[in-house]
């Protein structure tokens, strides 16, 4: 009976829907397998210092969030099937280039290809889900889609660790190339074209909407405040991998540590959303923002605990390095903060948009991640270079472990800086609420 129900639910959706979700899983697994170690790869394999590695990583990750807003017009002209085939072809070439040709002259063009390809996929897959479903099953369809996105993210980071340990960082990109190549073949063989004509905005409409958002202080300040949350959250990719590998050792698993975040979100997001449903959206945002700086303070506690316990803490069936343990706890708290923020942010953002134009402005609600990545990666490079430097840096490469130790004595300062950013964001939201509440009351009068 249960099997029949499952078959019925599957049959409620077209083959195109399931193919789209399948290739989305492959694409997300490929992306996060690469992205979790992007900063490490750029330094250890390509040879950039911490600052330049973070600048390049920030440019790439910021572009991933900005470009999808502008590809609608292009996909209209090219047609969906052709667009997504070209997108997966770009990604396969880019991942293969990162794996086979990890040189300074090749990685930047490869990241451009990844950025463009990923931008098409992000917008076109969500469009496919919408167009291949009906009003009666669309809500459930998107819940399936977002669940698959999380599964892809979790899976990619999970296999990235053993591949890196056994075969090296370059091999991770070979695996990512293989996954996107499988996706490309699946789309070519099984994907039925979906008519998405006129779904995307023209470039002029997009630029006008972007200008409308940036010129409205109420929307711009909200985006920048929430960017403070995501700036800290994305240190899972910018700072955490290098920090863990340098403080704990090459055997450490930043890939698995980062998976704590989506695991916590998947477990608690429904519970927390239901708990906060009768409270205002901005109340939920404030709770999440005030949790965030405490998460980074917990991350900073690792070296202090190590001085008391040594380099291993027994947890019954297994043991962990104190720095690893506190990083896991800190990231778990970030996951809880995300549960308070993400479900309610779009709701609150839409309330700040001009009446009748909510849909137009919501397309730019994720500009927070553009700013967060651009600024957060940039800050990360300088902090790592100052407090947790690359042991292969020219002035450090010949030093003994004892001589290196003083250079890492204040590595925890990295997380205190991000704690300060977190507190500033939380306090800014409190001020934001009061200022605009006062201004709105004046307008009504």
Beta-strand percent range: under 5%
CATH fold-level topology of the largest domain: Growth Hormone, Chain: A
Structural class: mainly alpha
Note the overall shape.
globular
CATH architecture label of the largest domain: Up-down Bundle
How far the N terminus sits from the C terminus, by CA atoms, comes to 62 Å
SS summary, helix count: 22
Q: Please report the total strand number as a whole number.
A: 2
Explain this structure.
The chain is an all-alpha fold and 445 residues long. Helix content is 78%, strand content 1%. It has two domains: 186 residues, Up-down Bundle (Growth Hormone, Chain: A); 244 residues, MFS general substrate transporter like domains (Growth Hormone, Chain: A, Up-down Bundle). Strand 1 and strand 2 form a beta hairpin. The longest helix has 32 residues. The N terminus is likely disordered.
Topology:
Blueprint: H1 2-11, H2 15-35, H3 38-46, H4 50-66, H5 72-78, H6 80-100, H7 104-131, H8 138-167, H9 169-190, H10 203-214, H11 217-233, H12 235-238, H13 240-247, H14 254-258, H15 260-276, H16 281-300, H17 302-309, E1 313-314, E2 319-320, H18 322-352, H19 358-362, H20 367-387, H21 401-404, H22 413-444
Antiparallel strand pairs: 1-2
Question: What would you say about this model in short?
Answer:
With 445 residues, the chain is mostly helical.
